[in-house]
Predict the 3D structure of the following.
Amino acid sequence: MTENHIIEMFLHPKSVAVIGASKNPLKGGYRIVTNLISNNFKGRVYLVNPNTEGELYKLKFHKSVLDIKEEVEIAIFYVPNHTIPELLKECIQKGIKGAIIEASGFEEVGEKGMVLKDRILDITQNFSRIRIVGPNCMGLSTIEGDSDTENKSGFFSGFGVFSKYKRGNIAIISQSGMLNGGYLMHEITQHPEMGLRYSCSIGNKMDIGEIEFMEYLIEDPTVNVIALYLESFKNPRKFIYLCNLVRKLPNKTIILVKGGLTPLGQKATLSHTGSLAEDANLIKAIIKQSGIIQANSFYEMFQYAQTFSMFYNSKKKLPKEGKAAFIAGSGGAGTITADLTMKYGLKFPEFSNETYKILIDVFPEWMPPNRFAFVDIWPAMEKAMMNKIKPDVIMKKVYEAVLNDPEIEGLFNMMFCSRQFKAMNDFEDIAKSVQATDKPIFFWLIGEAKEVKKTSNLLAKYNIPNFPSLEDMVKNFRVLFQESMNKQRK
Amino acid sequence: MTENHIIEMFLHPKSVAVIGASKNPLKGGYRIVTNLISNNFKGRVYLVNPNTEGELYKLKFHKSVLDIKEEVEIAIFYVPNHTIPELLKECIQKGIKGAIIEASGFEEVGEKGMVLKDRILDITQNFSRIRIVGPNCMGLSTIEGDSDTENKSGFFSGFGVFSKYKRGNIAIISQSGMLNGGYLMHEITQHPEMGLRYSCSIGNKMDIGEIEFMEYLIEDPTVNVIALYLESFKNPRKFIYLCNLVRKLPNKTIILVKGGLTPLGQKATLSHTGSLAEDANLIKAIIKQSGIIQANSFYEMFQYAQTFSMFYNSKKKLPKEGKAAFIAGSGGAGTITADLTMKYGLKFPEFSNETYKILIDVFPEWMPPNRFAFVDIWPAMEKAMMNKIKPDVIMKKVYEAVLNDPEIEGLFNMMFCSRQFKAMNDFEDIAKSVQATDKPIFFWLIGEAKEVKKTSNLLAKYNIPNFPSLEDMVKNFRVLFQESMNKQRK
């Protein structure tokens, strides 16, 4: 169903012309071409620059799109804003159907930019002759095959060159270019295990905006998580409608960061994407009616996206009542997590009698387990060591009991990662033994930085998320609970 | 003044006996000795274990403290709880003045533990014959010299062996042992630039508690930041009094994480440190009257501690009105930060006329700068490149103008760290040029993980903090603003 959608040609183009291609490695027009070629883009690529002769990456420069003999589906514009109207005319004449325009200097700069916009409206006959993504954007990215495999392939049309990435089920739609540039690079190098499918920088959305991309991504079966950064809603009614469609799908989640929630933020959006101030109450109402997950920052947005990504990959169940247990080797961590759990509207319930019996058995008499779902595991470890039982055996027993408890919908864990205490933590074993459950499992990893990194990578292989802070861990369970309520809402 | 305080012998002991010392590398009694020896503890060390013959690290085992010929100042107990009363008797007989007791199984386990406690009260004559830190704690740490220098030295009495650390101006007092164990290791390996002076695990605080340590640390000129994790207030009146003393000092800040703020958290504290539930309103009142910085989690506590540590190291001024500017290469980051700035009660003010004039000069005509204190630097960079001016030159000009603006009390920065755009970011140059100002400067670093790490280390050399999220950056400026109000309060 996605093949006939207007977005198909933008995310999976058969051929692209790079207008403003350059041989100068310092220029964006060089980087865009590099991004296409070095990432094995499967479509045809044509270089266009009236001032450049010769070749780049064995591709010939053309003076104009009109000099290209073959058919061209879309054009990527990396040229100054004032040259765009005339170049668009040539694209239309050539039969090019779509343009990605990266230049800024339109609505966001006031009157002069509006004049330019009017000319574009006129030339394109209100976008009926050619469709536009942007302007003031940083291009679109589609990841086809992981960068560290033979199948390495992607369509990267921004001017930040990507070299390491993993294909996955997350798609981004953003009015901030850096989410297809510097910040995306940040996230995927900090979290190399994070799998992405698309990143769409939509800029000022003069023509195409979040709605068209959402329509496409909702239909695309490779996408489970749609993360949006919006400074304005182009069509609130349609936005709510699409979000409510997603609410009824068992395998999709929408996460939104809304910029411009405060008067100061709105001042910033005006100069950024030319987004006019929206009424704060209207924004609240839109978000409420949409039934989506709201994030406060890019950091939260990516963390939530990764949590849902792993959740869908591992086919877990959403917690219907927000009831979690915590297994930890620190009473202090248990206390803080208990406080945070209440603060975020979640619960540590009482264990069932069956679970409690098993716990009593593995805990020493002088330090019985809690009746409520916080297991301070340390005394049980000590008892095991005194009885010459491997701590792993006890850990597995506790995990199994807690995960089988019908009162428990998900599990928090604290793990201490250290070469000093290696014997106590056979993570691979634990990860394997808990992956069969359909209850979400979250880890808080502490210890020596290197060991933490190693364990984090290992857990990711089993689609088990981990978090740098207890608050992040609790907040991420909260969004699963929230999504459960979203999906249940009529 | 600190020399005569009871805590002096606990943090700078001249001689210690390790009761429960062991030759078995898997035991805590082995690790404690290793921690002392491998970290060049300057005092004398005596090993005590009735069941062990021979030597460890060329130190002889003694059957009892009574067999030690020389004077012993304090004893570290790593033995089962029920053996403690008799061993304490011997310590008193030997003239040992203080004991650090790491075993658990006292107030926190109910009746049996209370019986044990009563025996200890009896034997010590209400701690008049020997003073006790703990029980249920993970020891005390004093860092004397950085681990990577010839002066490497410290007193580490916990059973997690420390090997990498940096001496600095932060002291921790904690009712969670992991803040002198696993989590401390986590923080100092994740942030090797963080400088610590002491970490004091006070456990159940049967005798000595937060009050005594606070008294000592307030007088200690090597400490600027006191970070506390408490599950109960031992003496609320005295706590408020000491906090109010600190409020009047220009070079000290207290940060508190309070565990057990909610009924669920209080259930956890009871089984952890035997802390009884405190009335939520009373806790609120204590914190309010104390005029300290409250943190929600260990993560926040360490981040705030590091921020204040660098703040005092670099002799900055607290922002009196919470007015910051933001220089960034992303309008989206500007928008989100503007929203967060308002949310946390801070301001991006209007620039003064002088600053605005300088900005107008470096910005292109088609994209003028904002009048309010968010500088979206990208267009100025583009203009510089078109005019063949090095971007660095423009950056410095903008920094200088903004930092000289009397309306601005602090600066947020976004920096993109990437080998691709190396030419644009000579951080060392920027870091040097901004370090002279007395206005706090915070960075948000994004980009390739390795480059981010490198830049983070570089900034730390100049005592410039950086944060992984925009929200963390804004929150940390907010606590400086809050501390300014604390210090101004009568």
Q: What stands out?
A: The mean pLDDT of chain A is 94. Residues 470-488 of chain A form the longest helix (19 residues).
